[in-house]
Amino acid sequence: METISFARGVPAPECLPEEELADCARTVIAREGKSLLSYGPSAGHTPLRALIAEWFGVHPYRVLLTNGSLQGLWLLAKRYGRGYGVVVEWPSYDRALKVLLESGASLLAVVVDDEGMNIDDLDSVLMGQARPGFAYTIPTFQNPTGRTMPHERRSRLVQSLGRREVMIVEDDPYALIRFDGEPVSSIFDYAGKNSIYMSSFSKTIAPGLRVGFMILPESAADDLAEDASATYITPSLVSQAIVHEFISRGSFEPNLRRTNELLRLRRDAMLAALEKHFSGAKWTRPEGGYFVWLEAPLGTNFNEVLARAEGVTAVSGSEFSAAASAVRLAYSYAAPDEIEAGVERLAAAM
Ligand code: PMP
What we know:
This protein is of the alpha/beta class. The protein folds into 2 domains: 4-15 and 253-348, Aspartate Aminotransferase, domain 1, CATH 3.90.1150.10; 18-248, 3-Layer(aba) Sandwich (Aspartate Aminotransferase, domain 2), CATH 3.40.640. It contains 12 helices and 14 strands. It has helices at residues 18-36, 46-56, 69-81, 94-102, 119-126, 151-163, 187-191, 218-232, 237-248, 252-277, 302-308, 336-348; strands at 4-5, 63-66, 85-90, 106-113, 116-117, 134-137, 168-171, 195-200, 212-215, 282-283, 291-295, 312-313, 315-316, 326-330. Helix 10 (252-277) packs parallel to helix 12 (336-348). The protein is globular. The two termini are 19 Å apart.
């Protein structure tokens, strides 16, 4: 029996536009190979910085390109988190929490409810604390819960942290992976200089390119470019030029529509299968992104369920420091008919 994976947040192979990317790679190396294949600016490929700056209406100097966005978080954590508390959602993306802890930050955990970070809990966590290094949030289609913070909660978060002069780091790789509903403005749109926006092309083009970016306040741009230079000299300019070529050719939007349609079918298959096999449990119904968060009645232990389950994998809530009665189900990878079979196998192990 082939194992069906709901474990990793990776796109299905058919989402990856490999032929077009091969052509972009050939084009950019033929055209700019001498500079792309050497060391270059530590902040990344200048034309891609300019293009992203235009998207966000900022000066290109504020755009730092990294080898995936997780590396951007690592740079931030080392400079602004070490020796400080960092506000995080609870539960949150396991790798991000690990990066923060390994960089020497301590975690100030704020409970996530149906609308994201709970502001009353945030206020009580921060009471009597020294000013945190920053606050880390994934407001749209959160990893692991799939939840999206509505507008009102975002603005309360901005107010609450702004009052305390705490920088908000908004990790937003899933915002464009939207299948239905209306987009919500990013925190960056209203927190302005009090926030850092972080995203990547991992979900919108291909994760293997490892192209991430941050929009930084002017005061941080030089410092972080210097840290980048000290860490890896230059990020992967070839990958960044491929992304730039892909966007400049007009391939970005049509590819996004195509992949979102492939992923929408998977989200729909996951929700339909849960409806069929998991009465008595509750789960999130995301309008996009990669994840559904399933909460079974208390007493369920998904560490045990997953150990028992045959032919299906997922990640227990305990990996995200949540209760083991919850589980993260990534619908991004498996084919729609496999998703139905995988959920059935999971239900059989309950
Ligand atoms: N942030 C979040 C919330 C993620 O889910 C992921 C990928 N799973 C990342 C960052 C890392 O992405 P990248 O490939 O850009 O490093």
